[in-house]
Design brief:
189 residues, 8 helices, flat, 2 strands, two-stranded antiparallel sheet, 2% strand, mainly alpha
């Protein structure tokens, strides 16, 4: 049965309920679209649970290289036991440090004698696994390239060779002078 919606259009009950249903769902559509690209149901929960493991770890004395080395080993063992790809960020979280601190150790700016070799070795292992994943097609190429540039310092390099082009090469002075005069545009052009 048609009903008047106060703006001059008659709608059936079915049409009215479809409009209400669309309006009710409209707000959540963008959330459905956003979450659709994040994998299977439960996958985000799994990622969060893995991150919480690092959050809940007891702190270590990061000035003690033996504790740092032991925690790095625990991180790699956790990744192996839980079928996780090791990451620089995950390594930092397990150590209870940020990437700036890790990079400072790698560059030898701090704790050079005690930490630099340990963390360089750990990062090198993660880089080796990254290369294996890339070669085996286990990473999206765009993701792999991003990681290479941002984690391991890889760069796109283009060699540019400049070849001088001198159209007056080999001309005597009078010919060169005439060539320059001829190359000046007339006011009429």
């Amino acid at each position: 049965m048609p009903r008047n919606n106060n703006n001059g259009t008659d709608l059936t009950d079915e049409q009215a309920s479809q409009i209400v249903k669309k309006k009710r769902n409209r707000g959540s559509d963008w959330m459905k679209e956003l979450s659709a690209d994040y994998g299977e149901p439960g996958e985000n929960s799994r990622f969060i649970r893995h991150a919480l493991v690092a959050w809940n770890l007891p702190p270590i004395d990061i000035s003690d290289p033996k504790q740092v080395e032991r925690r790095i080993g625990e991180y790699f063992q956790y990744c192996a036991d839980n079928d996780r790809k090791p990451q620089i960020v995950g390594l930092c979280n397990w150590l209870g440090i940020n990437r700036d601190t890790l990079n400072s150790w790698i560059r030898g700016e701090t704790r050079t004698a005690t930490h630099t070799d340990i963390v360089k070795k750990a990062v090198s292992m993660i880089e080796e696994m990254w290369a294996d994943y890339m070669q085996a097609g286990k990473l999206n190429p765009a993701t792999g390239i991003f990681l290479a540039k941002n984690w391991y310092g890889y760069k796109d390099v283009a060699d540019v060779v400049v070849t001088p082009n001198n159209p007056m090469q080999g001309m005597d002075a009078d010919s060169a002078r005439q060539h320059l005069i001829d190359s000046i545009p007339d006011d009429d052009e």
